[in-house]
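User: Could you go from structure to sequence for me? I need the amino acid at each position, not a summary. Structure tokens:
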């Protein structure tokens, strides 16, 4: 018996898609450009951006035929211009140029700048109103309500790129909120999952950067070691999906193959599984609602033979609970949590504080912000940036109090 061909959800479109990659030189940015190069459908790269890495940005711009390449740091403009001389690719630098690049009409924009530095460019990408693939979780942590409101008003399609949120997006598949009981994010537990407090006290940046499963930028890798990354992801999930904070949970899963489970009210739990490789969620955001081929290693469950799960240990890794508290307190607390955490991670990488002091510093900054009356809900992105700057100042002041020089 011949089987009828299944009807397609969407037509295959062959017109080139215009795409931009913000944070192109980073771990997510480079994987994105690699996938764009492999996609069935032709793509025109509009803008690629970075902070200071002029050489790598120029190489990527040339390799992908970008229209413009933009650095956030104007001190490296000449270098970029010289690398791009004679290629016909525009070179620009500075925060305004970055926002202008993100605002250029494009069908799809990857937002993969690291940290709160991504707020303004991602905001600009959202305002131009097409598809935004969101890797930069700090945008939703610091300004989630404002972003989601703007996305609703502009009719922008937001596609989550964080592996757990991409997994939830796939497992939810547009389900009605009343059907969802819980969203359970998985956490690898990072390199220190089995370490005791004494070992954690003397953990070095090299040890913290040695993630067992994922290859990522430095900041998110340190966040994974403290479990702050999972805390930021809880806040991100709250804004992305129709759930309340008590419906979000975390389970440690050292193999990082199950990325998220959605528990439904009838007792079904739908999970998404894949190898720990960011190319899978990036590819899904690029091809959604279709799927594109990738060379990501396939899961061989018989070979893997077992998957482990355990509860997170809040005594050794208090960052997760701290983020949960900030989520309960509101946007201002989340903005302070994020800004203070970025300062603390930088200080740890510069060996100015120890590993356990990262979360301690963030907790003190949150207390300080509350005592100083700073936890007032920001009304717009400018107010978020003012609060973010105040949180950083507070955190740097604490670094000095701890007896360490600020970064
Ligand atoms: N890596 C992952 O697997 C992963 C997974 C989920 C979510 N994410 C999220 O995706 C984002 C990017 O992560 P990543 O690991 O790709 O980071 P990364 O490797 O450190 O790359 C960061 C990118 O942002 C640029 N950048 C840094 N500071 C900037 C600034 N002040 N202004 C403008 N651009 C700036 C960098 O440019 P330069 O090269 O010039 O410094 C680089 O292009 C983060 O928000 C992270 O939480 C990452």
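Assistant: Here is the amino acid at each position, in order:
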């Amino acid at each position: 018996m011949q089987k009828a061909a299944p009807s397609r959800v969407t037509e295959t479109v062959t017109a080139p898609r215009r795409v931009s990659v913000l944070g192109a030189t980073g771990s997510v940015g480079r994987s994105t450009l690699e996938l764009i190069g492999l996609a069935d459908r032709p793509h025109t790269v509009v803008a690629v951006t970075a902070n200071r890495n002029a050489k790598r940005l120029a190489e990527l711009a040339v390799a992908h035929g970008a229209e413009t390449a933009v650095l956030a740091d104007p001190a490296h403009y000449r270098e970029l211009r010289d690398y791009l001389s004679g290629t016909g690719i525009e070179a620009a630098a500075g925060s305004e140029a970055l926002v202008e690049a993100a605002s250029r009409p494009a069908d799809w924009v990857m937002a993969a700048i690291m940290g709160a530095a991504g707020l303004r460019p991602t905001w600009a990408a959202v305002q131009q109103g097409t598809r935004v693939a969101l890797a930069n979780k700090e945008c939703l942590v610091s300004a989630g309500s404002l972003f989601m409101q703007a996305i609703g008003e502009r009719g922008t399609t937001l596609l989550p790129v964080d592996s757990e949120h991409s997994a939830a997006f796939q497992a939810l598949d547009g389900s009605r909120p009343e059907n969802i009981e819980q969203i359970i994010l998985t956490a690898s537990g990072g390199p220190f999952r089995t370490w005791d407090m004494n070992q954690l006290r003397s953990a070095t940046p090299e040890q913290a950067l040695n993630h067992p499963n994922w290859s990522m930028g430095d900041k998110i890798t340190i966040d994974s070691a403290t479990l702050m990354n999972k805390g930021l992801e809880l806040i991100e999930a709250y804004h992305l999906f129709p759930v309340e904070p008590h419906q979000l949970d975390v389970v440690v899963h050292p193999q990082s193959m199950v990325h998220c489970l959605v528990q439904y009210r009838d007792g079904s739990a739908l999970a998404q599984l894949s190898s720990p490789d960011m190319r899978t969620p990036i590819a899904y955001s690029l091809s959604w609602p279709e799927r594109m081929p990738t060379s990501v290693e396939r899961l061989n469950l018989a070979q893997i033979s077992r998957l482990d799960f355990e509860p997170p240990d809040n005594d050794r890794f208090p960052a997760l609970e701290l983020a949960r508290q900030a989520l309960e307190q509101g946007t201002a607390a989340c903005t302070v949590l994020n800004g203070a955490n970025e300062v603390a991670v930088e200080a740890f990488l510069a060996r100015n504080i120890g590993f356990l002091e990262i979360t301690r510093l963030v907790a003190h900054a949150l207390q300080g912000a509350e005592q100083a009356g700073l936890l007032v809900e920001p009304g717009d992105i400018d107010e978020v940036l003012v609060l973010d700057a105040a949180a950083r100042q507070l955190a740097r002041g604490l670094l000095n109090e701890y007896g360490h020089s600020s970064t």
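One structural detail worth keeping in mind: Residues 3-12 have pLDDT under 50 and may be disordered.
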